[in-house]
Design goal:
The chain is mainly α and 278 residues long. The protein has one domain. It is built from 13 helices and no strands.
Length: 278
């Protein structure tokens, strides 16, 4: 019987440089789409879209419903109402993305292949960001289209030409900050439940601290302490509606940028093929 050499052989297949993150993303998306409870959550997140669509239909076809006609504040409020689903999806999905890989020591396997840390992080980021955009940016843009269809003209869209860029910009800022922060926390632990609790604690603690300071100082100038308040302040500026807080919006923007940058640094240090113990 012939004996075949099973020693080292040079890889003769093709390489897709810079596209490895797509494999991570598509695999993660397919996995979540097989989770029935997650599908139910995604479906529930679109309930507000249906309600708003009915509102747009009534305001376009019945003069008695003119008071509920859409404006810029309507779309700003849409994002506010979606925050609960952004939070649930982030905790449900984001907490496990890196934590489970660290628990199974999969980082060593991932990074031993022709896959860079940047591609790994981008792939994980794309999974969470994709689903978050699906429940924020996608329905908000579709609402613009629904309004045009029900009104039968482009008058609203022409008068509010900045709404599409505003929706896109705010969704990008919110998703980037939330996704990078959650991935950074996920990289710190091997327990996804602990990561979810930690994220929840940070959100509610900063919000509660901001409320206490508001009560003590009788001012909202320290609202920047809460991560959610900073996003709200930036959203008000982007959608050109009255500001919720007295904090200058550049301060809120700076906090968001710093949080995203710190999260990036944490990811760069924690996502390694070999665990380094100081």
């Amino acid at each position: 019987m012939p004996i075949h050499d099973q020693g080292y052989r040079r890889y003769g297949g093709g390489k897709s440089a810079g596209r490895a993150w797509l494999v991570i993303m598509t695999t993660g998306v397919r996995t979540m789409l097989h989770d029935k409870r997650f599908i139910v959550l995604l479906a529930a997140s679109w309930i507000q879209f249906v309600v708003r669509a009915v509102q747009f239909y009534l305001s376009a076809n019945f003069s008695q419903a003119a008071l509920i006609a859409p404006n810029a504040a309507t779309f700003r409020d849409f994002f506010d109402k979606q925050d609960i689903f952004v939070y649930i999806v982030t905790v449900t999905l984001g907490a496990r993305l890196i934590a489970q890989d660290r628990r199974a020591n999969a980082l060593q396997i991932y990074l031993s292949k022709p896959l860079t840390r940047a591609e790994y992080i981008l792939g994980k980021f794309a999974i969470l960001a994709g689903f978050l955009l699906f429940i924020t940016w996608v329905p908000a843009v579709l609402l613009l289209g629904v309004q045009v269809v029900f009104a039968g003209n482009f008058a609203f869209l022409t008068a509010n030409a900045y709404l599409f860029p505003a929706i896109t910009l705010y969704a990008a800022i919110e998703v980037t900050m939330v996704a990078t922060a959650m991935l950074a926390l996920s990289s710190l632990s091997t327990n996804s439940r602990f990561v979810g609790i930690l994220y929840t604690g940070l959100i509610f603690f900063t919000s509660a601290l901001s409320s206490v300071l508001r009560f003590v100082t009788a001012s909202t100038s320290l609202s920047w302490i809460s991560f959610g308040n900073n996003l709200a302040q930036i959203g008000d500026v982007i959608f050109r509606v009255p500001l919720h807080y007295q904090t200058p919006w550049p301060v809120s923007l700076l906090i968001v940028v710093l949080l995203t940058a710190v999260s990036g640094v944490v990811l760069e240090r924690r996502v390694r093929g070999v665990e380094i113990v100081a």
